[in-house]
């Protein structure tokens, strides 16, 4: 308990330094970004270059004054027009970079904690909020701040359902059959909406850990995308589905308070429609 208290004090947000990571960052730190990337693996230096060098890409990390060559947590950001629905499109080799004035959306597509010894000390909340503030000041034309996040528990949820569409989705994901997933994309999105919005842990918090993180930060459950991550990992953990959480600067604090006090899942009309359609489909089958 004493050690935990000390680490929380030593790594208090007031001591942390936010630094941009780009192609001019020292190589020893860039190597650690490659090593610590936990969401979408960085294959090589060319892959890293595509994430930190183009003008429409950003990366930010928190450092501690006593560990200036060791990132604590970092976030990768894509500047886009509109909300993207595929992480493979964001990371494509032949992508054409956009000019600043053509972008209106900042997409947080990867957040990685770097220090195993600091597990349980949350830096993500402060990191996202500060990066949003930095980007909003640098690029005032940005109006939308969203994530493109994984849904790590969705495949387990699908396997637990006594539902024909869930069984077909599991089989299609295991076979890597994108066409079959596309045919069932509406059902996949409905299953994902139910998992994220309605499945709970004891105590009432969402069962999905990524949902707990972003909803706890004050984000809104905003959009669910099918065929958003067709990598082997994406198919294995969520049958290709990903989710966008919206950080509405005018509502973040109110959303955070609602979640913290009552585990309220703030969601968009699109998510509510998916939940409604899913329940109607279930009644029809009964």
UniProtKB/TrEMBL annotation:
<feature type="domain" description="Malonyl-CoA decarboxylase C-terminal">
    <location>
        <begin position="177"/>
        <end position="248"/>
    </location>
</feature>
<feature type="domain" description="Malonyl-CoA decarboxylase C-terminal">
    <location>
        <begin position="14"/>
        <end position="166"/>
    </location>
</feature>
<dbReference type="GO" id="GO:0006633">
    <property type="term" value="P:fatty acid biosynthetic process"/>
</dbReference>
<dbReference type="InterPro" id="IPR042303">
    <property type="entry name" value="Malonyl_CoA_deC_C_sf"/>
</dbReference>
<dbReference type="InterPro" id="IPR038917">
    <property type="entry name" value="Malonyl_CoA_deC"/>
</dbReference>
<protein>
    <submittedName>
        <fullName>Decarboxylase</fullName>
    </submittedName>
</protein>
<dbReference type="GO" id="GO:0050080">
    <property type="term" value="F:malonyl-CoA decarboxylase activity"/>
</dbReference>
<dbReference type="Pfam" id="PF05292">
    <property type="entry name" value="MCD"/>
</dbReference>
<dbReference type="InterPro" id="IPR007956">
    <property type="entry name" value="Malonyl_CoA_deC_C"/>
</dbReference>
């Amino acid at each position: 308990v004493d050690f935990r208290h000390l680490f929380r004090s030593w790594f208090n947000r007031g001591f942390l330094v936010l630094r941009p990571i780009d192609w001019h960052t020292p190589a020893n730190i860039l190597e650690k970004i490659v090593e610590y990337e936990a969401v979408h693996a960085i294959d090589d230096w060319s892959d890293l270059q595509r994430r930190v060098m183009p003008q429409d890409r950003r990366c930010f990390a928190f450092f501690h004054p006593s560990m200036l060559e060791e990132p604590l947590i970092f976030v990768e950001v894509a500047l886009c027009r509109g909300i993207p629905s595929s992480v493979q499109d964001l990371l494509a080799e032949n992508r054409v970079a956009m000019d600043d004035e053509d972008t209106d959306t900042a997409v947080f597509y990867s957040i990685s904690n770097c220090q195993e010894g600091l597990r349980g000390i949350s830096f993500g909340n402060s990191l996202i909020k500060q990066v949003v503030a930095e980007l909003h000041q640098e690029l005032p034309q940005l109006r939308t701040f969203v994530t493109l996040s994984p849904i790590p528990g969705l495949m387990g949820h699908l396997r637990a359902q006594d539902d024909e569409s869930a069984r077909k989705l599991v089989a299609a994901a295991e076979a890597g059959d994108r066409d079959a997933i596309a045919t069932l994309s509406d059902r996949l999105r409905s299953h994902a909406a139910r998992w994220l919005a309605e499945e709970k842990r004891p105590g009432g918090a969402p069962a999905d850990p990524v949902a707990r993180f972003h909803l706890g930060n004050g984000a809104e459950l905003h959009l669910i995308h099918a065929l958003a991550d067709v990598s082997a990992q994406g198919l294995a953990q969520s049958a290709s589905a990903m989710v966008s959480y919206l950080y509405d600067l005018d509502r973040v604090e109110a959303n955070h308070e609602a979640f913290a006090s009552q585990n309220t899942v703030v969601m968009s009309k699109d998510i509510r429609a998916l939940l409604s359609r899913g329940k109607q489909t279930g009644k029809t089958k009964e």
